[in-house]
Amino acid sequence: MAKRKRSQTKLKKVLKQKGYPSGKAPKGKVAHHVKPVDKGGKTTKKNIRVIPKGKHQRIHANRKKRGKI
Q1: What is the pLDDT of residues 20-66, one digit of tens each?
Q2: For the whole model, what pTM was predicted?
């Protein structure tokens, strides 16, 4: 399966909808797709969470360890 592109324009729009007027996550935080894009997740308000960078790294490390990535 080819990797799907993440739309930066769409992400910026969703972050604005979530209350981040600049369209960017605050310093030390990142936008995380709850359902990964390559698994069919979309860049929507419902599927995006703004979480600390460290937590984001742990989520992806755990997914990799379980073979989900």
Answers
A1: 999 999 999 999 999 998 889 999 999 999 999 999 999 999 988 98
A2: 0.82
Contact 51, 29 (CB under 8 A): yes
CA 63 to CA 14: how far, in whole Å? 24
What are the residue boundaries of the structural domains of the chain, listed by start?
A: 8-65
Q: How far is CA 64 from CA 28, 57, 58, 59, 61, in A?
A: 22, 11, 10, 9, 5
Residue 44 DSSP one-character state: S
